[in-house]
From TrEMBL:
Listed GO CC annotations: cytosol
Keywords: Amino-acid biosynthesis, Aromatic amino acid biosynthesis, FAD, Flavoprotein, FMN, Lyase, NADP
Name this polypeptide is given: Chorismate synthase
Source organism per UniProt: Peribacillus deserti
Cofactor(s) essential for the protein: FMNH2
Keyword NADP: yes
Enzyme class: lyase
HAMAP family membership: Chorismate_synth
Biological or metabolic pathway of the protein: Metabolic intermediate biosynthesis; chorismate biosynthesis; chorismate from D-erythrose 4-phosphate and phosphoenolpyruvate: step 7/7
Leader sequence residues: none
Domain of life (superkingdom): Bacteria
Entry GO MF terms: chorismate synthase activity; FMN binding
InterPro entries to which the protein is assigned, alphabetical: Chorismate_synth, Chorismate_synth_AroC_sf, Chorismate_synthase_CS
Family label: Belongs to the chorismate synthase family.
Amino acid sequence: MRYLTAGESHGPQLTTIIEGLPAGMPLLGEDINTDLARRQKGHGRGRRMQIEKDTAFIASGVRHGLTLGSPLALVVENNDWKHWTKIMGSEPISAQESDEVKRKITRPRPGHADLNGGIKYGHRDLRNVLERSSARETTVRVAAGAVAKKLLSLLGIEIASHVIEIGGITAVRPSLPIEEVKERSEASPVRCLDEEAGRKMMEAIDTAKANGDSIGGIVEVIVEGMPAGVGSYVHYDRKLDAKIAAAIVSINAFKGVEIGIGFEAAHRPGSEVHDEIAWDQEQGYYRKSNNLGGFEGGMTTGMPIIVRGVMKPIPTLYKPLQSIDIDTKEPFSASIERSDSCAVPAAAVVAEAAVAWEIAAALMDQFSSDRMDVLVQAIESQREYAREF
Ligand SMILES: Cc1cc2nc3c(=O)[nH]c(=O)nc-3n(C[C@H](O)[C@H](O)[C@H](O)COP(=O)(O)O)c2cc1C
Ligand SMILES: C=C(O[C@@H]1CC(C(=O)O)=C[C@@H](OP(=O)(O)O)[C@H]1O)C(=O)O
């Protein structure tokens, strides 16, 4: 199973094409739109989110609520496009029309793809870089992730996300059933399960914004119900934990990833890291703890998958950073019109989508099927087999 995305931040639309879904999977627009709306929320988002009302149009691959097995195309229109038709149009623009009409950019923003992207593709109008490097693209990543989540839920696999840190304020993570993690994170404007910490996070976002600054944080994704033995140890590029790590770091502004206790493993002796193996009739094999976050040897253990990702502070600041104009080579202070001051709560939804996609793709790799009913059977058999092994 694979997907591609296309679209510029201020272009007419964002598109994703998903290939390899089984036929006969129930899928409705609302399965996708719920997650698109979740991604738009969160304390600290900027004015663009008031313009957009992201909804997916299912352009192909579904008929009467069921997937066909053919490519699934999803389209999300940019409401902002109507203000950008001239600037972002695909028709050539006349030589008479000024760079101002094109809103040409020659001033790369620190922390963005602008300068490196200009050098790589030879764009001297850096708008050609930023339109695609923008995290607006995460809209359709979330749409693809929502489709993956639907597939997983039909296989008895649930996924949730929440925020565990913003701007140095850390939440106490209560041990909760996954349904409650979903409900409580949804009820919080910063997707935090710890109400007290959530309030402080909001204050920290407001303070950063008032100072013209931005803050980052840490999100956590939890997956329950995965059968054991998915992924592989035989090759670097078949290890499922490695694929998940790459998917997390591929999200705009994500700089690190942890699986299970992650970097904490460096401080503990082996006896306090490795999870002892046990077996009983009802559960089959299980681990007495889950420090390794559901993975050993690039494969699932059947325990919950725990993945964390760290997001750097948003790079566009109202307090301007210094940079160099690529035409004049003169220094300047970057000024901005609008930006998020913190997008960590929104990014939790993106991280959830990224993990859901990798897990669904790994299942489709290993239990490849053109039919949803056959896939359901295959996963059930794997669970039974792993229990009795
Ligand atoms: C959901 C989300 C929203 C974002 N919003 C903004 C924003 O409003 N302003 C900004 O400068 N960066 C924003 N970013 C981060 C930039 O897109 C990102 O830092 C930039 O593309 C450079 O990529 P890199 O940080 O991965 O190197 C956002 C990221 C995410 C995940
Ligand atoms: C549009 C989204 O996020 C955008 C991501 C982004 C960036 O530089 O990454 C910059 C801002 O865009 P604009 O310059 O249009 O205000 C954010 O609003 C979105 O999340 O849907």
